[in-house]
Amino acid sequence: MARTAREGSQASIKDVARKARVSIASVSRVMNGHDTVGAETRKRVLAAVRSLHYVPHSGARSLATQRTNVVGVLLPDLHGEFFSELIRGIDAVARLRRLQLLLSSTHGDAAELAVAIRTMRGRVDGLLVMSPHVDAALLDKNLPSSLPIVLLNSPLEDARHSTLTIDSYRGARAMVRHLVGCGHRRIAHAAGPELNLDAQERLRGYRDEMASALPGVPPQVLPGDFSEKSGYLAGQRLAAQPDHPDAVFAANDVIAVGCMVAFREAGLRVPDDIAVAGFDDIPLASLVSPALTTVRVQIAALGRSSLEQLLLSIESPTRSRPVSRALVPEVVVRESCGAEKPPKRRSRRPAVRLP
To answer: What region holds the HTH lacI-type domain (predicted)?
Structure first.
């Protein structure tokens, strides 16, 4: 008498093949999504899978396909709406492709980055890395050269790896240009972390546009980080000045919100007494009062595009080539900058299109 999977025990691929009256190879092809299986065979296999409550053994499948179906994601931090939106975009593609994410934060520390990279070695099919500390030597020392990697907002320019970046420099120049167009002349900048690439580029864009659009007007930079507390302290310093600036351009939206809280406590009205602008266009930006003028970055689209590019490298390593793409942000005008008539908002189409 033929053996069948006993009630309460886990069915095997042999049990599925026997019940569906097909070979084990046919079951494997169906479970791995190959299109070389006939419709009738696929139907019988799936019916047997449901009947036996069969769950593929991930370890055995990895040995057969040499894939873990896991993608590693290394970020400098997990706190805040920027990273929440980025992960949301990555996760959308992962769920669609039935992949798991192995997520880690390096907290902006170079040593932690090296440890995290080594920990993921052998556990993932590919790696998304966002870190100000990543360089070629670190990757070569800690990872096999064959592992597909996509770098996000990385200072490393390496032709071996795809890179996706936010053009923070152009976005910052566009925002300062807009504030000047609104009639503001004394424009301060509440900066982000000194070692962060985006913060550096936004500061550089601010300085260059101030020099171009307002020659002779000295820039005013308030150092800080990407936190609301940093913005609050910057706002307190600006509000305490006897002759405060006309406007403040913050390196991100969270800093801008912190500034607005400090201004309100000091009795300054936004935008009547001082205009405020941010960067990123996190969901909160349109909900604060007054709504925040900002530089829109398609954060979730950046996450989606980065994983899509990584999967191209994983699935077609000999045919896919590393690419370098810059996400170009756009100014979104709301009430906080004092513009008399905000232009019609553009659609939220992803700004990054990859092959």
So the answer is: 11-65
Q: For residue 30, what pLDDT is reported? A: 80
Dihedral sign, Cα of residue 43, residue 44, residue 46, residue 47: positive
3-state secondary structure of 39: helix
Instruction: Decide: 100 and 73 in contact? Cβ < 8 Å.
Output: no
**pLDDT class for 354, splitting at 50, 70, 90?**
very low
| Cβ–Cβ under 8 Å, residues 195 and 225 | no
Q: Give residue-wise pLDDT tens across range 307-336.
A: 999 999 888 877 778 888 888 899 999 999
* Nearest CA-CA partner of 151 in 88, 281, 143, 65: 143
Top CATH class of 168-297+332-337 equals alpha beta
Q: pLDDT digit string (tens) for 135-186?
A: 767 777 777 777 888 988 876 666 678 889 889 999 999 999 999 999 999 9
Say how far apart CA 267 and CA 273 lie, in whole Å. Answer: 9
Answering whether pTM is above 0.85, one says no
Residue whose C-alpha is closest to residue 243's, from 214, 277, 207, 268:
268
CATH architecture of 13-65: Orthogonal Bundle (1.10)
Which residue ranges does the chain devote to CATH 1.10.260.40? 13-65
Rounded to an integer, what distance in angstroms lies between the CA atom of residue 200 and that of residue 241? 25
Q: Report helix angle 39-52 to 13-20, nearest 10.
A: 130
* Cβ partners under 8 Å of residue 114, min gap 6: 138, 141, 142
Q: What is 70-167+299-328's CATH topology?
A: Rossmann fold (3.40.50)
